[in-house]
Amino acid sequence: MRKIVSFVHLSLDGFVASASGSLDWVSITEELFDHVGQRIQQTDTALYGRVTYQMMEAYWPTAAAQPNASKHDHEHSRWYKTARKVVLSRTLADKKESDTKIIRSQLSEEINKLKQEVGSEILVFGSPSATHALMAEDLIDEYWIFLNPVILGQGIPLFKNIQDRTKLKLITSKTFASGVVCLHYEVKRQP
Fold first, then answer.
1. Which of 19, 103, 137, 188 would give a disulfide with 108, using CB separation of 3.0 to 4.6 Å?
2. CA 108 to CA 99: how far, in whole Å?
3. pLDDT at 50 over 80
4. pTM to 2 decimals?
């Protein structure tokens, strides 16, 4: 069965974005890009909320064609073009592309169908609203948290809509030269 994996940057005080939604506090380095790039190559499906999806669609399909495109831009753009996209949105118009599925309702049922399909895990990139909706239905199986050495004081929290205590098992951790710590957790469910 495929897993739903949340892939998110987090401040030390638990926020995934500032109060305005900004991510200008996220530490991005080549070391981090390389690590994430290698990790992303292991999956074939990305899950987004509408806002994040529209942001990704506006940049990644043509990122490699830009005159100053980085190695990361080339790699991620190539991956993005081949990845299947799943978008949680009640308002987004239907997409004609066969690689994009929009889930408007029956979240638990639709996600469980996706989990049964052939393919690798399904990565949730950022997308606080989508992540919160998935948390409310206990649909996230793993968290890859990139803990940034910054305190925001306020913002959009990562953990919201949790119905019950959720136990996690640390699978791996990695510290980057920038001070960012990647924590990979698995959700421990009762049998």
1. 137
2. 21
3. yes
4. 0.90
